[in-house]
Every structure is written in structure tokens, then in C-alpha cells.
Automatic annotation (TrEMBL):
Signal sequence annotation: none
Gene3D superfamilies attached to this UniProt entry: 3.30.420.40
InterPro entries membership: ATPase_NBD (IPR043129), ROK (IPR000600)
Descriptive protein name: ROK family protein
Family: Belongs to the ROK (NagC/XylR) family.
Organism: Paractinoplanes pyxinae
SUPFAM superfamilies: Actin-like ATPase domain
Superkingdom, natural source: Bacteria
């Protein structure tokens, strides 16, 4: 009987869920709303119900579920399987791993959503073949994962990789984190759309609207986009000084801009560095399945350690 892992990537709006084979291929995928407004216990209940349903689906398909991998946003204590803090889904010190193991009777692993996405991209996606990989997800916010030899680095408190909160414009725009001038306040998809909407009087404008309009000769859109690129490049110069990686893999919603993001960002980065070796700039290869695949890989790693 073929083994599979039950994998869930839990976000503030929705859950991406899958049965993943040990080689990273997805056997079955489904999506469910998170409905975080119901409170943390209800969200955890949905996670447990969906995971149980996926395990049953695996058995119905003559597959053997051997482990469960869960990815959540926020600060994650991976060693103890606790979601320490996540404002998006209302979790605070929630023992997710223990509850999963109790309900399903399977070994489980809990990881940070961007970090497990980085593990997947490093092993199977845009960073494949490189030992030192930095995965940066640019969406509503900005977060990153340092992956060395296929292993994600979580830091002493589970909060490593918060590149979005490198201050690139001291005293600048307010960031939701409480600081001013964070890279996220200038270079995230939310920040780009908001900045253009305010300046152009275009309510509801998105970052991808800005990219499109910049490409069509809209000077205001081009200015907003250039300022975002410059802020991202400034933050990445600091990141490279700290991490010295072979490859930078860019994912998240803003990566949909493709070469309109990668080319000017790499160019701006190279203009800023002096003695540092520049990494290759590549687009993420696994799309929005990276979180599920990475959660599955984390669960398989956990299973191996138990053996």
C-alpha cells in the first residue's frame, strides 16, 4: 500500500489541504474556508475535521496515511508542536500537534507556513540543487525562510525570517507591526496597491494593477512600482549580508508579476551590493501548493526522527 501524508496549509481566509506522496507529488487536493472569526477553538475543530476526512479519503483510495503535517502563520514552536501566536487565525499557545495526534492517532508535525513553503521550494522547487536558499513570500505581508541543506531555520523563538520588518526607511510609513519604515510597509502587495490607490484616487487598486498600468506607460504607477522595488532591494541587501545564500526564490502573490518584478529587483540589488556575491533570483516553482507540500515534508522528517 502506498504511503501518503495528510497536509494542511492554514491561512487567515482559507485552508489548502492535500494528500501528498513521499516524493512531493499531490494525490488529492481540496480547499476549505478558515472562518477565523469563529474563534480559535472552532478553527482548530475545522482543522481536525478536515484532517480526519483526508485520512479517510486516503484509505478509501487504498493509500496509507502515515503522518499529518500542518502549516500555520505567525510564531510557531515547531519542537513542541505549539502555535504560539497567530493573529490571522486567533491562535495563542494552541497545542495543535497534540490535538491532531490525539484525534487521528498519527504522528504529526507543525510548522510555520512560509518556512515549510521554503523547505518545499528548496528541495523540490525553484531552489532545487542549491544548498543555501532564501525563500521570500511577498503577499499581503512579507516573510522569508532560510533553508540550508534542505532544513529550515526557525531561530531561538520560532520567529526567524521576518524580513518584512527590516527597517529600510527609518521614520517612514507606519507598519502594522508597530514600527515605521519596514520593508513590508513599502514593498508588500498590500502596500503597493494602497500607495497607488491613495495617490491616483483609485480605490481598490491592487499591486498587479500597478504593474499592469506601469507597463502601459502610467507614470504614477511606474513611480510607485519603482519605489517598491527599491525598498525590497534595500532589504534584500541586508538579508544577503546576513545569510549569503546561493539563490533567492521569490513567491507569494506579488511573484505573479513575473519578470516585471524579478528583473528590476535583481538589477536594483546588484546596484547596491559591493563585496557580496549576488544570489540567483528565481521565481517560486510550486505555486500555492508549496505550503502543503512543505508541511508534508516536515511531517516525513518528523516521522524519520521517530524511527
Amino acid at each position: 500500500m502506498t504511503n501518503v501524508v495528510v497536509a494542511l496549509d492554514v491561512g487567515g481566509t482559507g485552508m489548502k489541504c492535500a494528500l501528498v506522496r513521499p516524493d512531493g507529488t499531490v494525490h488529492h487536493a481540496e480547499r476549505h474556508p478558515t472562518r477565523a472569526e469563529r474563534g480559535p477553538e472552532a478553527v482548530l475543530g475545522t482543522i481536525l475535521d478536515v484532517a480526519e476526512g483526508l485520512a479517510a479519503k486516503a484509505r478509501a483510495d487504498s493509500l496509507e496515511p502515515v503522518a499529518v503535517g500542518i502549516a500555520v502563520p505567525g510564531v510557531v514552536d515547531e519542537q513542541n508542536g505549539i502555535a504560539a501566536w497567530s493573529s490571522n487565525i486567533g491562535f495563542r499557545d494552541v497545542p495543535v500537534r497534540a490535538r491532531i495526534e490525539e484525534r487521528l492517532g498519527l504522528p504529526a508535525a507543525l510548522g510555520h507556513d512560509v518556512r515549510v513553503g521554503g523547505i518545499a521550494e528548496a528541495r523540490l522547487g525553484g531552489g532545487r540543487g542549491h544548498r543555501h536558499v532564501l525563500f521570500m513570500a511577498i503577499g499581503t505581508g512579507i516573510a522569508a525562510a532560510l533553508v540550508v541543506g534542505g532544513e529550515g531555520y526557525s531561530g531561538a523563538h520560532g520567529a526567524a525570517g521576518e524580513l518584512g520588518h527590516i527597517v529600510v526607511r527609518p521614520g517612514g510609513e507606519a507598519c502594522p507591526c508597530g514600527q515605521r519604515g519596514c520593508m513590508e510597509a513599502y514593498g508588500s502587495a498590500r502596500a503597493v496597491g494602497k500607495r497607488y490607490a491613495e495617490l491616483a484616487g483609485a480605490p481598490g487598486a491592487t499591486a498587479l494593477d500597478v504593474v499592469t498600468r506601469a507597463g502601459q506607460g502610467d507614470h504614477l504607477a511606474a513611480t510607485v512600482w519603482r519605489e517598491a522595488i527599491e525598498a525590497l532591494a534595500d532589504g534584500l541587501v541586508t538579508a544577503q549580508a546576513l545569510y549569503d545564500v546561493d539563490v533567492l526564490v521569490i513567491g507569494g502573490g506579488l511573484a505573479e508579476a513575473g519578470d516585471a518584478l524579478l528583473h528590476p529587483l535583481e538589477s536594483a540589488f546588484r546596484e547596491r551590493i559591493t563585496f557580496h556575491r549576488p544570489p540567483a533570483f528565481v521565481r517560486a516553482g510550486l505555486g500555492d501548493e508549496a505550503g502543503c507540500i512543505g508541511a508534508a515534508l516536515l511531517a516525513l522528517d518528523h516521522l524519520e526522527k521517530l524511527a
